[in-house]
Amino acid sequence: MRRPSSSMLMTAGLFSLPLGWALLLLIVPYILMIAVGFWTRQFPLFVPDFQFGNYLQLFSDPQYTTVILRTLKIAAMVTGCALILGYPLAYFLVFTIRSDKLRNLVYMAVIVPLWVSYLLRAYTWKIILGTDGALNSALMSLGLIDAPLDAFLYNQTAMVITLTYIFVPFMVMPIYAVLENIPKGLIEASEDLGIGPLGTFRHVIAPLSLGGVVAGAMMTFCLSFGDFVAPVLVGGPDGTMVANLLQTQFGAALNWPLGSALATLVLIMVLAILAVTGWAERASARNLR
Amino acid sequence: MKQLLWWQKGMVGFVFGVLAFLYLPIVVLIVFSFNDSKVTSFPLAGFTWHWYQAVFANAQMLTALKNSLIVAVCATGLTLTIGTLAALVLDRHDFPGKGLFRNAILLPLSLPGLVTGIAMLNFYKQIGIPQSLTAVVIGHATALLGVVVSQVMARLAKTDHRLLEASADLGAGPVETFFRVTLPSIRPAILGAGLLSFTLSFDEIPVTYFLTGRDITLPIYIYSTLRRGITPEINAIGSMIVLVSLLLIVLSVGLLRDRK
Question: In this protein, which residues make up the domain named ABC transmembrane type-1 (chain B) (predicted)?
Fold first, then answer.
């Protein structure tokens, strides 16, 4: 050993800080939340316990099952819409734009909204949609409609539009990354073999970009599933989502054990999704080799 | 340039459509922040600075803005320090449970913030940290570790380890090596992660919602105001935030380019 042991100790001390921090303030809280999910509520206290009553209630009480199913449905719709918008955009960026400068510029243009306040981006849709919102009033002053359409604000369509808007960049980024990594030689080879663009897409590009699609879809799904803002701003009475349920359990309903059980369900779902994504990404990387 | 095929032309239109979808709402926000009317509808009523004046006369909103800035600055400083150390540990050392640590640190990036907020609330309640801006700072700093760790680790992976050996061979201690070799090479990542952390902390709602006490941050102020209805003041402060974010992006792109 050349270095004196005091510097070794200092290094060890410095390095245990981030690990201790993450353990105490991140891992322990998640574990505690899972534990509280098994506790019992004896109003106004929460008593340590080990019972599955909270989970039973979440899975049997229609008040909760409808909301969970609705959230799954909306998250799936958002993921679908984001894919429909995001994939062609990523494809266009990588394969149609020839100039690197232009490509970087358009890519930046897609990513920049992520830097603009998430709350404000959700909020703008509250201004746009709605009875006397920007969209209805614009259509009316153009003479396209006579009376405001109620079709937009405070319903599930509004939530899907808003959430798609917020999360499209999350879909574009991973798809762009995988498309960019596809060796151009493969595509030229496919074209040389006389296969048209559609065939090349089906047999070469689509399978090779699957990893990015899965990663983007999972990210979009997880984030829109747990979204906190859109349901409150543009969702209506039939727009209650899991996030609102959680808010209520920790607020007015004051049932932390039930809320923690629900949050644990979300945690498990996200972990499962991350596992699938990791697997798909590895599989897709193997394909490329 | 090659002539575009019909389906490629269609795609150009589609892409313009998506970009319009991404930017029109922001334009709408800014336009209505200058609109002389309490309702946000067309036709426009005329130009006014009124809503901006209202923002600067709204003491509650300004306090919330100040709180947000304090929280974002403190949380960014804290998360950069701890996150950079964490990235160095994860990059250089093997220890049992390493995978768990890395995944736990990265988890808040894909887990809805709400779940992280609830986990922290449960824990803080048990160990007696009261709901306050301090709790929010600790919460943000912890939840944002993933941003710093992922960026710095990506950069460290590209660093030539032989440089570190060379530095040690030349007699530099670990501290000197860190400041003279490692830090300069990861500076762009730290800068980028710092700007991103600041933006995310400044804008954060779910974790803040559960951890804050009587003092509220700007997003929470806006969020609770919006539940009662729209006021054009929000358009004005929103437009200012958008402008500042755009300036920050231009700044960070410029800074990162110079470092190359």
Answer: 65-252
